[in-house]
Amino acid sequence: MPNRSWEVGFHLRSPRNWLNDPNGLCQFRGRYYVFYQYDHDWPTVDQKAWGLFSSPDLVHWRYEGVPIQPSIPEDRHGVFSGSAFVERDAGPSGEDVLRLYYTGNVVDPVPGHSPKDFDYVYAGREQNTITCVATPDPDGPPGALRLGPKQVLLRNADYPAYCSCHVRDPKVWEQDGRRRMLLGGRHEDTRGLCLLYDSEDGISWTFSHAIESEYPFGFVWECPNVVSLDGREYLAISPQGLPRLRDRWFNRWTPGYFELPEGQRLIDTDTIDERGFVQWDFGHDFYAPQTFVDDAGRTILVGWMGTFDDHYTSVPDGLAWWHCTTVPRLLSRRPDGRILQVPVPELEGLRGDGRALSGETIVAGRMADIVLTGIEGEGALTLDGSFQVFYEHGRLGVRYLDEASSAGRTSRSIPLDGLDDLRVLVDGSVVEIFANGGAETFASRWFCPEAADLRVACTLSATGTVYPMADTMAQMYATAEAPVLDLPGWNETITR
Description:
Layout: E1 17-28, E2 31-39, E3 48-55, E4 62-63, E5 79-87, E6 97-107, E7 125-136, E8 145-147, E9 151-154, E10 163-175, E11 178-187, E12 192-199, E13 206-213, E14 220-229, E15 232-240, E16 256-259, E17 271-272, E18 278-279, E19 287-293, E20 299-305, E21 321-322, E22 324-325, E23 329-333, E24 339-343, E25 355-356, E26 360-364, E27 367-376, E28 379-383, E29 387-392, E30 395-400, E31 412-415, E32 422-427, E33 430-435, E34 440-445, E35 453-458, E36 461-468, H1 474-479
Parallel strand pairs: 1-21, 13-17
Antiparallel strand pairs: 1-2, 2-3, 3-4, 5-6, 6-7, 7-8, 7-9, 10-11, 11-12, 12-13, 14-15, 15-16, 16-18, 19-20, 20-22, 20-23, 23-24, 25-36, 26-35, 27-32, 27-36, 28-29, 28-35, 29-30, 30-31, 32-33, 33-34
């Protein structure tokens, strides 16, 4: 039987099966959309599609099924990551339409060859950039989309000759009256890079230039994003293959960002100083974040609370779903260039009556928003005597107090010169931690023993409040059916 303590109530997960990268994040015609990579037959098949959630307010979500599935030869082995672009006044009656961009994955494209004949780095893989248009479905509920035909924009031959077969994850935006596209990739000499393309219409694309680091920095860059805050631009990437160090890069795949010098734009940049890389999150379960700007001009990030790190990707017994997203995080720029991340304020509408945190506090329902301010000295916040957020000897970190709840994760910490405030979101098997106004964050899964209530204890000297959180997802997850995808039967050659 599944452990009910692991269920989530204000985080997005696939109703069934596998979820990874958030994709196509946008606000379209007043409604928020979060697509995500979905594997319909997990854990036995690795053939991705795009699932979808929509919301009027970033809090109450509707499951919209799996609108993008492998259906043409150019995406027959998976609909990989990508982005959304709202085309203003482009519909037949002057309404906005939503254009989606993604990578169509194909492996073993040569007839008569076995998958074992290729390494899928330098041969045996197609990474096709594909687009389609989405409009509201007039016959569906609010949030449902109707997709138009797919169109292949770029193929392997359209990427520079020095690239390997790993070029993917288009991010599209508009700047100076032209559309721009970033693609993450892998150079043939095994180092990461981004490719920048330009377009007048979002259909015909011309290669501009590559963006690389001064020295090799990971063997591939995935999920590129451009972020603009207070007039400064950032390049965000998810590099793979960074060496683990004591205070950073704990995961093999570690996303982060580079701030560009004042006055410099990404579209004019070809070289990045890799020494300026800032890690988005230090938790065990964080990868492939994507950002978007909503109608209010806010920059919002959603990340995948998951990983492919082998030593803790196994699924605890009883779960019919695996992985979730972070809550939407509001981004802002600190004067020194650091990006601050905090939960969007809409999430506070799920709070119940707050209680002062003193001694041990019991929270019914196992969903809580814990806020500590005016912190002085060292100490720890402990959940169920099993998971701990600590500040000791100038280090902020998390530790698992029993092996069973960690599912292979181990304690980790970072140096921090003073802890002033702390906010901890607990949602079943999810813990998200925001320290010092969101300057440092940790997103980790925690598989606690089954219990109806959450026990919160604190030894930090601080003013603390514990808010129980409402569950807005239970009905959606209980009633959403796992879709049976109409796939063309091409999955027999799939390989990672």
